[in-house]
Amino acid sequence: MAANVSTHDAVTGGSITLAKIVQSSATQNWSTIALAFVASMGLFLLRLQGCESEALLYGEFVAVTALAAAVHVLMGCRRDAWPKIFRTLNDSIAAHWLMSGLVICLPWVSNLAQRSLIGGRGEATELVWLAMLQNAAIWQAAIARTQKQEWTSFLLSCFLMLFGVATSDRNGMLFIVVPFGLLAAWWLMARYWQTIERGFVAVDSVPLVRLRLVMVGLLCLFTALVGGFAVLAGGSVSSWNGFMPTSGGNQSADSAARKGVGDGDMLIAAKDEAFTFGPVDSDLFLDSDAPSMYDIANDMYGEPRARVRPMTRAISLNSDAKETDQEASESKKAGKEFSALRQPTDRKSASKPTDSKSQAAFHVIGNTPQHLRMEAFDTFDGVAWSQSETLAATKPVPVLKMTEIAGKPWMLLKNFAKDLIYPGYERLTVKLINIKSSRIAAPALLSQVHIDRVDREDFFETTGDGQLAMPGREFVPQLTVVHQLFHIPQLHPLRDPSNPLSQITVADSALAIPTYRDSKTLAALGSDLVRDILGSDINRLTDWQKVEAIVASLRTFQVDRKNVPTAENEDIISFVVQSRRAPDYLLATTAAMLIRSQGIPCRLVSGFYASPSRYDIRAGLTEVMQEDMHTWVEVNAHGVWIPVEPCREYSHPRYYRSWSQWAIQSWWGVRDYAMNHPFRVALGACLFGMMILLRCRLLDACCSLLFETSVLAPTRMRIKWSLVLLRVRMWIWGVSKPNNATVRSWLQAQLGCDSKLNDRDRHLYIQTIQRIAYGSKGKAHEWIQQNRQELSRISHVIVQRGMRDLFKRGSAGSQWDSSLAMKANQPA
Amino acid sequence: MKYYSHLNRSLNHDFCPWANAYVYWLKKPIGWVTLAFVASLLLGVGVSNQAFLATAAIVALGVIGCLWPWIVMAGLRGELKWNQLRCEEGEPIRTTLGLTNRWPWPAWGMVIEADDAISSNVETPGQPICLSRVPAASVSDFQWVCKPTQRGCYPKKQVQLSTGFPFGIWTNSRKLTVAKPLIVWPKLFKLTDVPSHTGNRSNGIGSASDIVGDEGDWMGVRPYRPGDSLRQVHWAQTARRDSLVVFERQSRSRQMVSISFDPNAAKSSSEVQREWMIRILASLTNHFLQHSWQVQAQLDEGWTVLSPGSSCKQQWMDRLATWDHKLHDSKNVAVTSAVRSALQFVISTPSAASEHCKSIPSHERSRMTWILVAADEQETANLDLSMLNHFLVIHVNKEPVLQLQAKWQRMCQRTTRSLVGA
To answer: For A765, phi and psi rounded to 5 degrees?
Structure first.
């Protein structure tokens, strides 16, 4: 009795804190030394850069590593197993100091030897010191016995790795940093766990939610939705705006920035490395061989085919009539005409990815995919798109006014009807690299634009087709960074039949009425396509839904740039519809014509498609190459040009701006579906409710069905399987086996509830389970063989209870009575 | 060897202790992480952008390491309770921590921060109580058996549940509620025998009974025993027999004893001695109460009368469990004589007893038996204890319990022998 209270115990009445125990625990394991090895690899790579004798360096590294590993192994063994010499060395403080000194000074000695023996210049002094530190870290990890020593080694390793990352530009460093980071995180976790694991106490838990499967299921569903969306978004989620000045972010700029799109704002023109802003006209850019939009279109889609001119008899004019090539020169003028009849192109060369950054037309920071418009065409004569006379004659609209956002001058271009756009702006930054055009690539609903330090309104204009351009210059200087704010269209008013905005057809507009020669046939064709997609209820659709149906229909076609109509076949629309494969500009043309056939105004747009697949993670931007030139359609809805994408190789333009808007839009879709199909929704809801209500019974029945999978299995396996399923069923009903209950006591209680089993059955089953669990394999097998028939029956009865009670009313069936369950949970 | 030890000492010498206050944060993991973050940031800005990779990793480590404990703790509620409300020092007691985890994910790696006495498991002594995992959305009971080693009312400090999981770089805590406090009584040692009464003062109270004693009506005569009062001498019988004969009277129904705790000793003694004095006081009180004695006990100022019975004992033990000498100003309190008791025990230390016993009148001092708790033999070697008529010395560095039991028994036997011999 007296021994129960020791003098020391009586005196020390302190308290335990986590900080105390973390500091006190001592451990020895391999993670610390592994961490030191990985860190030393980083420094080793650094040393290799300036090393004269790689063999010597390798030798030194291997020697230290091997010695440290050997010492660590020996330190982990029992003292009795140590070699005598090691025991002697370990007991001697002098030997400790000597060995540590030798190992730590080895790089210095090696460097000295390198200089004196080989005659080289050796290593840089700071590298030698770092190498000594590296050896200290390894040696400390090898001989560590206390946690403080391990922490010392860990911190030295972290320092070395940080230094290595900061000073080395070898690519291999990345392959060391990542494992080191993971290992360091694991080391920290292991240290923490080791400090507390000896004090673990037993736990007995009861779930708050009776069936957590529902929550797990909801979580899985949510994860699947998010994952699915991320996959469908095609990586666009990774192209979020940068946040640091030097990372190319567009939230701020830094005059000291060295990389990224945002750099050009602040730097001056330079000849060798032209990181410049600019509306700066320099010789460098004037001599540039950057392609114009016309060149890009020709490279991309092929040269326009000469039209087969109708041959008619004529009388020649008098000889003094002057020949003019005015028409030919105009046809080549960018922004005036787009021929839909072209030579087939070699798609392979056109789509060949270009690995040089200088080949990019421009860089984009912002969400992708993005349709960036350059030109728009509103008139189609059956072969070529052009801008109508009225549009061509329209004078460029000067910018309305200049505003200031966050101290920067922003040009306000246009205000859109609030009903058709989401509130707030989306931001996009475009850096022009290799394109010669006075027009600036921009999204459809561009609202404001900003070029750093450009605060004069006459720097901008909007062309007749609504495109942003810089007047008075042949092309916008290279490397100009253009920040843009644009809107995202809100489509719900267009999809809602009860909304007056859903009516977007125009009776007598040049945009709505096709100028195609066979407009009636075209209208019928369009209606047929819509019917193919939506069935016969075309009249119930809103105009926008018709557009969506036509686009959805065309997105079943294949994009094939080689498949162009022959010179004789100028009926482009029929060709596309019949062959169901065509280049994107023909698909866009077909879409535009079919949409117009429904009386909906639309136009053809050419520009660039910023693809998420071209996102450069390191630079934080998306490259837009010349081969990303693309053609699509814009539909006019109450003055707002909304892009639609008829090619299935290209993503739909985004119709939501944020997750919340996506959720709202989805909710509108669900609501519309529910209102249109009330019976289906009500039935589904009832079924779902029933499933939730009967979830335990259903899962119980599933367990019973699962048991049938073992029908061909040996009896021993069936019995074990039945026990597993019994435990699962009990878990489903919230009466899991307590940790402190034996299998026997638990089974006695559980099987007692089953009226189809008599006492002998229960006893036989429990005895068999115990024999399987604890007895010898041979005797258990013998026992099972003796009672095989009965055991099969009992197992079946036990597990099939879930099926029997699936539709039984009341709680006496498969639903375990709670009091009985609680009683069953009491340990015997 | 000397040089190595010098080297070792110089390497571990604190050359600038004044700076410790400023760099103490570096001794914590969060300090290292912060330092690494700043260093990597500076390297990224000034040396190479690649260092921002390390910055990102450190930030991720820091954010996860700090946020996760905070998130986990926000979903946990717990209550600590014991299977009984009172126990003695060293008595195993089952402790239950009920934890509710409201999060749909489990919580890992937690530690209970509390007084050592209640937060260590008897199966893993010296190791704090740790919880490996609290299942998601569940109510869990963690049980362990602890042995409180020091008297007191527990918890003395706020009981907290802490976690530094996953990296241990930042610890977040949540207070645990305590259903009812645990009162740990001083350890009670089993003593054998009780001392016989000698002297001329009554040590009994209550109504007189026919049991032979020294009070009430006289029942007969008996030969004189040393210590009997001369007033009780039956002179007629004495003359007739030519030897002293005294009256034999009725005795009171209950014996009474006084036990006092020397407040001066409590002030000047070490904590070990003080704890042992408390334990001896508790053991003596308990011993006499078990023998149905009425006990007059003095802990601070004034006497407390304890009658045999569980309620009195419980109140007294609770008082002893929670008594703290710092809370009581004992400079003017001295050992006083009990009013009616003929038998008085004073628990003190040798130095305090030798110093203060002179102030006690000799006739009162003669009735006192001193139980002196000494730290070791040296403490009593140079002291003059001759002024104390009766005393026992218990050295706490040598099995004090066995010493007390043996010396107590010897003392009881001696008083009985003296009576019988007389």
So the answer is: -65, -45
**Closest Cα in chain B to A619:** B49
Interface of A with B in 453-472 (CB under 8 A): none
Q: List the structure tokens of B338.
A: 């009990």
Judge whether B74-185 and B204-421 match in fold: no
- How far are the Cα atoms of A180, A369, A370, A613, A634 from residue A645, in angstroms, in the given order? 46, 12, 11, 18, 9
Q: How far apart are CA B353 and CA B277, in angstroms?
A: 13
CB contact under 8 A, B168 and A15: no
Extract the runs of DSSP E, i.e. beta strands, from B294-341.
294-298, 304-306
CB pair distance less than 8 Å for B141 and A205: yes
Strand-by-strand arrangement of the A203-207 sheet: A203-207, B138-146, B93-101, B76-82, B177-178
Chain B: residue whose CA lies nearest to A211: B137
Helices A147-167 and A30-49: crossing angle in degrees, nearest 10, is 30
Listing from the earlier edge strand, what are the strands of the sheet with B130-134? Answer: B130-134, B107-113, B160-163, B172-175
Give the mutation candidate from B6, B12, B150 for the A interface (greatest A CB count, under 10 A): B150
Partner B, chain A 166-185, Cβ-Cβ below 8 Å: 166-169, 173-174, 177, 181, 184-185
Per-residue pLDDT of chain B (422 residues; tens, 9 = 90+): 567 777 778 878 888 888 888 888 877 888 888 888 998 888 888 877 778 888 888 999 899 999 999 999 999 999 999 999 999 998 999 999 999 998 888 899 999 988 887 877 887 777 888 898 888 888 999 888 888 888 999 998 899 999 998 888 889 999 999 989 999 999 999 988 877 655 444 555 555 556 666 666 777 888 887 777 777 888 998 999 888 988 887 766 677 888 988 877 877 888 889 999 999 999 999 999 988 888 888 887 778 888 887 788 899 999 999 988 877 655 555 566 655 556 888 899 888 888 877 778 777 777 788 899 998 888 877 777 777 778 888 998 888 999 999 999 888 887 766 655 43
Contact present, B78 and B99 (Cβ < 8 Å): yes
User: 3-class DSSP state for residue B381?
Assistant: helix
Token pair 């036509």 is found at: A550
Please give the span between the terminal C-alpha atoms of chain B, in angstroms, as a whole number. 71
- Determine the residue among A1, A38, A159, A205 to mutate to test chain B binding: the one whose Cβ has the most chain B Cβ atoms within 10 Å: A205
For the domain spanning B74-185, the CATH number is: 2.60.40.10
Q: State the smallest CA–CA distance between residue A496 and chain B in angstroms.
A: 39
Say whether residue A782 is in contact with chain B using an 8 A CB cutoff: no
Q: Which two tokens stand for residue A345?
A: 């192109």
Residues B329 and B313 sit within 8 Å (Cβ to Cβ) = no
Instruction: Provide the β-strand partners of residue A641.
Output: A636
- Between helix A788-799 and helix A759-774 the angle, nearest 10°, is 100
Fold of B204-421: Rossmann fold (3.40.50)
Is the pTM higher than 0.80? The answer reads no
- Ranges of each domain in chain B: 74-185, 204-421
Q: ipTM of this complex > 0.85?
A: no
Q: Does A712 touch chain B (CB under 8 A)?
A: no
Are B53 and A165 inside 8 Å of each other by CB?
yes
Which residues of chain A make contact with B96, given a CB cutoff of 8 A?
none
CA A245 and chain centroid, separation: 23
Task: Return the structure tokens found at B396.
Answer: 């706490």
Task: For B5, name the nearest residue in chain A, comparing CA atoms only.
Answer: A93
